[in-house]
Amino acid sequence: MVTLYVGGKAVSWADAEQLFADGAPTEPFEISSAAGRFLVVCKPVENPDWVKAITPEETARRQAEPGFTFEEIKKRLGWE
Q1: Coil, strand, or helix at residue 80?
Q2: 31: left (phi > 0), else alpha (psi -120 to 50), else beta?
Q3: N-terminal to C-terminal alpha carbon distance within the chain
Q4: What mean pLDDT value characterizes the chain?
Q5: Which domain holds residue 45?
Q6: 20 to 30 A Cα–Cα from 45, which one of 12, 25, 26, 73?
Q7: In angstroms, rounded to a whole number, what is the distance separating the alpha carbons of residues 17 and 47?
Q8: Please, what sign has the CA dihedral across residues 21, 26, 31, 36?
Q9: What's the number of CA atoms in the CB half-sphere (13 Å) around residue 77?
Q10: In the predicted model, what is the mean pLDDT of residues 12-20?
Q11: Which residues contact 1 (CB under 8 A, 6 or more apart)?
């Protein structure tokens, strides 16, 4: 059995989705075992610049670029 904590308070798994949506971006959350050992501790951080640069326009620009199939990549890497 594991327990979920948001903002230092134990919460039910049934409420987890809403609590993650509301609290996790601003408050730390933890998941601990029945013995009280922390399994996961997550603390919110500011998004790095590279994440902020992912805009719909940048995504569209990259999708318009030519790509390669897996077979083409294998050839370029000399795997064939």
Answers
A1: coil
A2: beta
A3: 49
A4: 84
A5: 2-76
A6: 12
A7: 21
A8: negative
A9: 8
A10: 81
A11: 33, 34
Total domains in the chain come to: 1
**CA 1/CA 43 separation, integer angstroms:** 22
In degrees to the nearest 10, what's the CA dihedral of 64, 70, 75, 80?
Answer: -170
Helix (H, G, I), strand (E, B) or coil at 63: helix
Q: pTM above 0.70?
A: no
Question: What single letter denotes the amino acid at residue 68?
Answer: F
Cα–Cα distance, 51 to 43 (Å, whole number): 17
> What's the pLDDT at 32?
82
* pLDDT at residue 57 greater than cutoff 70: yes
- Amino acid making up residue 5: Y
CA 34 to chain centre: 25
28-31, Cβ contacts within 8 angstroms, sequence gap of 24 or more: 29/4, 29/5, 30/4, 30/5, 31/2, 31/3, 31/4, 31/5
